[in-house]
Amino acid sequence: MSVFMDLNLSYTNDKSRMQSLIETAAHLGYSTVAINYTYELTIKKSKVPVPTPIKDLMEKLPIVQGRCRPIRVLNRLTVVMSEQCHFKKTGREFSAYDLLAVQPATEKLFHAVERGIMFEVSYSAAIRDSTMRRYTIANAVSLVETCKGKNLILSSAAEKPLELRGPYDISNLGLLFGLSDGDAKEAVSSACRSVVLHGETRKTAGGIVHTMKCCSETPDQQEAPPADCEAPAAKRAKQLTE
Amino acid sequence: MRAELDQTPRSLLVSERSSFRDQKTRIRAQVEQLHFNYKVSVLLPECCSAPPHLDSIFNTFNSFYLIRNLPVYELLDKNFLETAVYQGSVYGVSYRTRIDEDNCVALTPKGHLTLSLDKDSFEILGVEGKPSRFNHRTKCRFVVSVDLTDSSMAPGGRGYQRLLTGLRSRLQLKTDFLLSHYPGGGASLQALLSRYDWSEHRPQISRHTLTDLSCPALLTSDLQSCDPHSFMEWVGAVDANVSCENSSSSFLSSLVCPEPRTTVSRALSVSVCGLLLPHDVHRLIQEIRCYLEQPHLESWVCLTVHGYADSPVSWGDNEHSVLKGGENFYSLLMFQDDTYHLHLATGAHDTCPP
């Protein structure tokens, strides 16, 4: 298993509420959270929102309860699409975000997205309203049946700290949706980790090569700064010997 | 909706009846094998204050040490191995690390070092290990188990060097660490402690006097009135100070004392918390046996010992993990005639207790 994550904390302009959300998440035991900015693709002249730097949001990130590390905060963008539009996910305005999500508003788009990555079920709507609770459970049960419990993450979409629940509680909620014990726990841990790693590979070439711009101190340097290649921690290509 | 909603995650309860005077009794081994004990609670019925001998045992539990941010390669330090690990019994477990989230470390008294690592850390470390028994779909947790007393792990040897290099330069694993040593106490650990931020701690003792406590009746050695599960639930409720009244006006607890029941006018519950050694648990058991030899109103005492929920190993060197709960504990119900009922319990991600 990996650390617990909640990859959907709704962004508000209220800085103290955001701080409170992050503190509550750390207190509940989440090691990584993602602040979700929403962007409507179909509204003309709407610009992709620029994420607030985490440093400006909170100077010192709180320590996760029961561990000795501070909580990790990521930025996430959810693109709401209600008709087939051209969406270029490698655009510069998206590079500020660690995670990209798509919220299809029609069934047609839903099928298009289907061959994609992970599905997400948010639970805070179920906390706010009883009718939404029924819909959430019904839809989640259908989703779990279709994807057989794999490639699913559970997150809050919380707007207030009171709408957050602890990771083990959400893992139990997953049982209501039809997940097994192991799958439900993975939906708040390992599956979220896969999503975050996948998000990191968007900024790399093929998920292997990561380039970093080197700052050169002398401005009149002729040659271009070299690219720093950093292979991920684990694998090296086998040396073929003849 | 699936029908399995009424099922809870698997748990194991092993119950055993024997006598301390029986030649084949395994109680000593069973107590020894649970290396990392977090809490010991004793329930003494018809007793309002512990007798002095019993109290002195509680007060003389071994001290333990907390080292902040210890680099794990220090556990392979040649001097530490020679003065502490090879000589006596060192008990060490990482502190404030969650077994299902973080990298955890355990050092058992026989010199076994167990590292429970997540996938990235295991691949960076580059030492031989096995995938965890409790991996679900993907292999995301690995266990590296090393016998420090084995000849292949002698300082300077290849296996030793590889692990040392891995922990020192590749992975650089640092964790808060709880450490205790038997019998030498702190002297043999001083060299290691002096290099880092450390503090010595005494186990915390708390005492509660309970009045009008409902207990299962007919608690005698040859007849236990209720089944082990109900009995364990009741012991847990008493230890956690949860009411077993099940009154209609309260929705907090619907736990009840198993029938047939009796009421004890007063009882004493004593808990000791910290890194507690099996040796001290033994001394406590012997002292409780002496206490029971004298005539009392109620002829039984219940002792419960809890293991660390986030320890990489539970009994022996068996791997331990947490699914929903990381319980690994045993409850010893002792009687006047030197007989006992032993209940050993673990959660879903654990092996069968001995």
From TrEMBL, chain B:
GO terms for cellular component: multimeric ribonuclease P complex; ribonuclease MRP complex. GO terms for biological process: endonucleolytic cleavage in ITS1 to separate SSU-rRNA from 5.8S rRNA and LSU-rRNA from tricistronic rRNA transcript (SSU-rRNA, 5.8S rRNA, LSU-rRNA); tRNA 5'-leader removal. InterPro entries: RNase_P_Rpp40. GO terms for molecular function: ribonuclease MRP activity; ribonuclease P activity. This is Ribonuclease P/MRP 40 subunit. It comes from Labrus bergylta (ballan wrasse). Pfam families: Ribonuc_P_40. It comes from the Eukaryota.
